[in-house]
Structure formats: C-alpha cells, structure tokens
Write a structure and sequence with these properties.
With about 240 residues, the protein is of the alpha/beta class. It has six helices and 14 strands. It has a six-stranded mixed β-sheet. Helix 1 packs parallel to helix 2 and helix 2 crosses helix 3. The mean pLDDT is about 95.
Length: about 240
C-alpha cells in the first residue's frame, strides 16, 4: 500500500506574519503537520496555491516545514503560484513535478491548470497530453488545482476549470479512479462519469460547504489522505489539526 497525503492551498506569503482570511498560514500549516506525520505517508502532493504571493521565501519555508515527513513530494501550481519560482525552490531530488509518477502500481498524474494572472484554470492540449501516456492496465489518480466540477459554492464556482469537458473526454473510468483538486477551500466529494471527484480543503482557512459567500469553517486546517493498493483498491479521508 502507498499512503499519499494531499496538502492544498497553503497560501504562505513572503512575510511569515501575514494574515490570510484572518488566519496565519505558517501557523496553521504547522498545526496540521503533526497529524500528517502521524500517518507516516509514503508521499505528499502539493496541489497548488502553495504561496499567496509566489515569493521564493514562502516556498522555501514550505520546503523546510515538510522536511522529514516524506522523501517523495509531488507538486503542481495554482493560480497564486509561479511555476518558475516553485521549480527554483523545489529543486531537491525529493520534489517531483511529474507529469506522471509511478508509485506502487499506480499512476499519479499532475496536471497544471494555472493561467498567469487569472483565477480560473485551463488545460490545453499540451497540458492534457500526459493523459495519453497512461497505461490502461494500471490504476491512475489525477491531480489538478482547479475544480473540474461545480462544488455548489457560488463564491468559488465562478473560478472553475474552464472547458472541463476537454478533461473529462480524456479520462477513462476503467483507469482513472479519482480526480483530486484544491482551490475550493472546503471538503467536497462527488463523481462524474463513474470517476470520483474529491477536493482537499485548505491548510490555512476553509469555508463551510455550499455557501454563497466564503463562510469561515471553525474546524480548522485540513488535508486529504489516500491509501492506494496495488490491486487498484483505494480509500480516502480527511486529516484535521489536533
């Protein structure tokens, strides 16, 4: 079994004392990490908006905070990130941008949906191309930052993955078990075309589900875990700060 933890929407700033939606991003990530460590993950996925301002210092702090949790860290950018700055900060051998990683019989796909200076996401043919590499005989888990289905929260559904049908047309439910995303700052579980659709809540600030406006969730920072079995079985759930 391969245990994977998805950390999303950390929103660290160059200034470690900066406020994000009334919370401190560094402090809340630190609050959450003991629960992540307790799971002894084999791998981590950073699914975008790792930084709020794309500052090199913010990525370096995330890198340092994750040191020792797992030697296998995958990442993709969100709309607040700068891919080039991330590449500079995440240059160690333990960091991987994919786009397709092989783990315990699974194919982990990292799709970059970030568009510079735009809050919504987009996947063109070049960005969708990794899906053409998939082995139809092995299960796959696809990660993308922007939500490819509505999460019934108007405040964030106005910034979705644009033209998501292009993604769904490329996904084979016999291969792809789930599409996992961030961006929405809340827990969501649904399905489309027989494929599970799962969000990872933010490690800094979340909204209550299905609200017109961002409505602070008092239960604190969270992450999502996956247990991936070689036979294609899998389980998932949420991690909360202690």
């Amino acid at each position: 079994m391969f245990r994977l933890v998805q950390l999303s929407d950390c929103h660290l700033s160059e200034d470690p004392d900066a406020s994000y939606r009334g919370e401190n991003a560094d402090a809340n990530l630190k609050r959450l990490l003991p629960a992540v460590r307790a799971l002894r993950p084999d791998g981590l996925v950073l699914s975008g908006d790792v930084s709020e301002d794309a500052a090199l210092a913010s990525y370096r702090r995330v890198r340092d905070l994750l040191d020792g949790i797992s030697g296998d860290i995958a990442w993709l950018p969100g709309n607040h990130d700068d891919r080039g700055v991330m590449e500079a900060a995440f240059s160690a051998e333990s960091f991987h941008a994919g786009p397709v990683l092989e783990r315990a019989g699974w194919q982990i796909v990292l799709l970059d949906s970030a568009v510079p200076d735009r809050p919504e996401g987009h996947l063109d043919e070049k960005r969708l191309a990794p899906l053409d590499q998939l082995d139809g005989q092995r299960p796959a888990l696809v990660f993308v930052h922007h939500q490819p289905v509505p999460v019934n929260a108007p405040w964030i559904d106005k910034y979705p993955l644009v033209d998501a049908d292009q993604l769904w047309d490329r996904l084979d439910p016999a291969v792809v078990r789930a599409v996992a995303f961030g961006h929405v700052h809340q827990a969501f579980r649904g399905q489309k075309n027989g494929i599970a659709c799962l969000s990872a809540p933010s490690t800094v600030a979340n909204s209550q589900s299905e609200t017109e406006k961002f409505t602070p969730d008092p239960t604190g920072p969270k992450a999502r875990w996956f247990n991936l079995h070689p036979n294609g079985d899998w389980q998932t759930g949420l991690i909360s700060a202690g």
